[in-house]
Task: structure prediction
Amino acid sequence: MTPQLLKIATTFLLGGLVSLITITNPLSKIPLFLSLSADQPLPDALREARRACVYAFAMLSAALFAGVAILQLFGISYGALRIAGGITVAILGYRMLFGNGDTMLPRGRGHAFAFFPLAMPGIAGPGALATVIGVSTELAELGSPLQQVVGYAASVLSIALTCLALCWVLYSARWVSRLLGEEGINVVTRLTGFLLICIGIQFIGSGIRSFIAGA
Result:
């Protein structure tokens, strides 16, 4: 692999991983998962966690590959998508920093909760989908097909690693909840919210640059 391809792979792998881990905020999913699985035996709860992560991986990967086609279908520019995605991410970050970032998620219990509400909108929510589609616009602007292949492979790997991390956290939900306590999870959520605001502003700045370059 040439240095340029290695740089592309590293950029999209690490950039996608950091962005997705930050925006999905695995620790914030612990209260939701514990609430939904409270009346289930542990094996059944863990099965739902696995299925939720598989569903989330499928949805985020589909958004990565179909994102550009959807934008072209509706005539949405890359710059507009990045700005809209940045605003969405920043708003979610604001809610996590100053309020409850997961207040939109239902808290009801049920035997089958892997797809809704755990996978969507719990994991693959508006912010995560906007982030992945934003990455797809950056991939579409790479210079050569080989660079795009490397970029897509690195991005898919970042999605897979994010879902694996989420699965591990959900598997360890009861232990992590006891270890950190409600206050510890709250602190992590606030810090993550601040990082999301920074990522959202970065997306907005990238979108504005795209608008200026295309003017």
